[in-house]
């Protein structure tokens, strides 16, 4: 994982932890899925996406945002939406 | 969900089976008290989750084998007995009726009180991120409330964007269902109270859901035109089957979505079914329990 990807994951992880009330030490990886985290259901997924948009200053394509399978795909979507500027 | 809602008397009748979360339980309860449906069918509810009120139900194989109509809520946990259904069983897939739009700070409360018989989900299963964050930073209940009053508006998302997000979420799910509800939800949001909490619809929403299910069942439910939903709903408390808890709505959200039906004093935590509480009282109560829970956890940790 490159430094930029590492930083991207760090910031995505922070939003995931805040959204779902996870303890600071909880490890979120690119392979983390909704099934791994209590409370990550369809209702809270939209809050996560809103948090990501705010954190990275981007608007994600909504339809695709609801088809994500893991944090790695969310990171890809952030990159496609131009969110990589947030990790410079 | 009250166990007595489940009609288990009609063992020889065809089964009308409703599968899903607590909303499916409410649908089964409403259909179960309808004179025509109860006379014709053995109306059964199967929970898709760990239902602490009605208990996890394992339906008898003969009940499943007699199912003529399965009303199946679209759920990550698929209906587990599909292979046991008779070949003639009709199936209507319906969406969960939920909306987070009015409670964007909602999350699963990590500092809720433990379940009791009276409060099987604790008092505040629907947590508020900002309240819990304040507690975790060591603020008192009064300080938490004061911080909430002065800072919570800054934590709300762009509500117009969020409304589109929620609409998209509902439509994406409805694409996999036989009926839709998002059109109704967004048409009526400002004029009617549709939700007590993010996933507890009011009687208004449940009535619409039941009506659409009856229409979608078509020939699989030939008695549907005789069903009297309004009469059935009078069998429940005024707030409906799922109105035992009501989460207050942030004043800025009330204003943004022009929720004229909303009153400032209609919050109810789980267990305070008789006495609605104000917005401040509700969040003070959540903070107080969270402070107790945090202290209790820290005491356990320091002891070990």
Protein topology:
The complex is a heterodimer of chains A (88) and B (304).
Chain A: H1 3-20, H2 42-56, H3 62-65, H4 71-80
Chain B: E1 15-20, H1 22-32, H2 35-40, E2 42-47, H3 61-65, E3 67-73, E4 90-94, E5 106-108, E6 126-128, H4 129-136, H5 141-155, H6 159-174, H7 182-188, E7 195-197, E8 200-201, H8 203-217, H9 229-233, H10 251-256, H11 279-303
Parallel strand pairs in B: 1-2, 1-3, 3-4
Antiparallel strand pairs in B: 5-6, 7-8
Helix pairs in contact in B: 4-5, 4-11, 5-11
In a nutshell, what does this entry contain?
The complex is a heterodimer of chains A (88) and B (304). Chain A has 88 residues and is mainly α.
Q: Your description of this structure?
A:
The complex is a heterodimer of chains A (88) and B (304). By secondary structure, chain A is mainly alpha-helical. Chain A has a single domain (3-87), classed as Non-ribosomal Peptide Synthetase Peptidyl Carrier Protein, Chain A. Chain A is 53% helix and 0% strand. Chain A is built from 4 helices and no strands. In chain A, helix 1 packs across helix 2 (42-56). Chain A starts with a helix and ends in an 8-residue tail after the last helix. Chain B is an alpha/beta fold. Chain B has 2 domains: 3-94 and 203-233, Rossmann fold (3-Layer(aba) Sandwich), CATH 3.40.50; 96-200 and 242-304, no CATH class. Mean pLDDT of chain B is 89; it is low at 1-7. The longest helix of chain B is centred in the last third of the chain and has 25 residues, at 279-303. Chain B has helices spanning 22-32, 35-40, 61-65, 129-136, 141-155, 159-174, 182-188, 203-217, 229-233, 251-256, 279-303, and strands at residues 15-20, 42-47, 67-73, 90-94, 106-108, 126-128, 195-197, 200-201. Chain B contains 11 helices and 8 strands.
